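Lecture notes, part 5. Sequence design as translation. It can be helpful to think of inverse folding as translation between two languages: the language of shapes and the language of residues. The source text, in structure tokens, appears below.
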């Protein structure tokens, strides 16, 4: 068996196209332009690249893009004051504080200072609680992207056995809640799970989000299962030359692809969906703030 490759780049482009259509409708019919504000503290190179990409794509779909770049030594009081200002700005519908923050800043305090309705990352404790109890919330972008791809591939997820490998607050836990919401039978597995290979072998859907390169081999995968690989790990690639590296997922792609029915590659799978869902969340937030119908197909 050779697995169908779930093309995250193509799917993300489709989602961004849907977002752009909704933005145009909001402008033309209601005179509203969704706005996204991104706050970057410090000069982490990976974060800088990510923020630039977010800003570029925000503008491409016709939304307002605001970037606040703060010095690494910015005080917690000054950061919280900026967030309060954005919370009270009616032209801003989504606020994202790029993580990780410098060590002198309390990430939980900062995240929970964002207005939950503008928390397009879905990390605020209120949104975590709402999602966990099956209520309307802002949903974390990466799990939302995974859910969209799974729905697109399977149609209905009802009754399928899903194993989420990883229990992080950012991916593992919210992913399990979303799958439960779509009537899957869900197991959360992790590094201390007994008989982990056998647990994974029982899954119709495997979501690997543990942060260990190529941890899940093909012989853990049930024939025909769908594999969503959230991991992005950089490893040495001596075959490319001295000092060279390559990106791999949490699954061993070649062996898993021989057994699975469908699989996301790394790179080019889940990654592109994260920014696409950030844009989708901003449009959703804008619609909710203005008492308008939420965009179909872009929410959980």
């Amino acid at each position: 068996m050779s697995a169908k490759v779930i093309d995250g780049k193509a799917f993300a482009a489709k989602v961004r196209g849907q977002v752009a259509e909704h933005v145009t409708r909001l402008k033309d019919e209601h005179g509203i332009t969704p706005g996204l504000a991104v706050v970057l503290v410090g000069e982490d190179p990976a974060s800088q690249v990510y923020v630039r990409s977010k800003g570029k794509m925000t503008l491409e779909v016709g939304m307002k893009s605001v970037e606040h770049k703060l010095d690494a030594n910015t005080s917690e009081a000054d950061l919280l004051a900026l967030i309060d200002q954005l919370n009270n700005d009616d032209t801003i519908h989504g606020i994202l504080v790029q993580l990780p923050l410098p060590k002198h800043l309390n990430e939980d305090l900062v995240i929970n200072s964002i207005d939950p309705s503008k928390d397009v990352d879905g990390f605020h404790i209120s949104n975590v609680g709402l999602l966990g109890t099956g209520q309307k919330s802002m949903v974390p972008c990466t799990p939302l992207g995974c859910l969209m791809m799974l729905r697109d591939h399977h149609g209905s997820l009802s009754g399928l056995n899903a194993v989420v490998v990883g229990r992080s607050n950012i991916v593992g836990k919210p992913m399990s809640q979303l799958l439960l919401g779509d009537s899957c039978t869900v197991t959360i597995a992790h590094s201390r799970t007994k008989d982990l290979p056998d647990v994974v072998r029982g899954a119709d859907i495997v979501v690997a989000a543990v942060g260990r390169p190529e941890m899940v081999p093909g012989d853990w995968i049930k024939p025909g299962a769908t594999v969503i690989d959230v991991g992005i790990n950089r490893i040495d690639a001596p075959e490319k030359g001295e000092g060279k590296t390559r990106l791999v997922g949490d699954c061993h792609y070649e062996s898993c692809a021989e057994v699975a029915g469908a699989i996301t590659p790394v790179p080019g799978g889940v990654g592109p969906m994260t920014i696409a869902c950030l844009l989708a969340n901003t449009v959703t937030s804008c619609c909710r703030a203005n008492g308008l119908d939420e965009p179909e197909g872009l929410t959980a």
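The translated text above is only one of many valid answers, since several sequences can fold into similar shapes. The mean pLDDT is 96.
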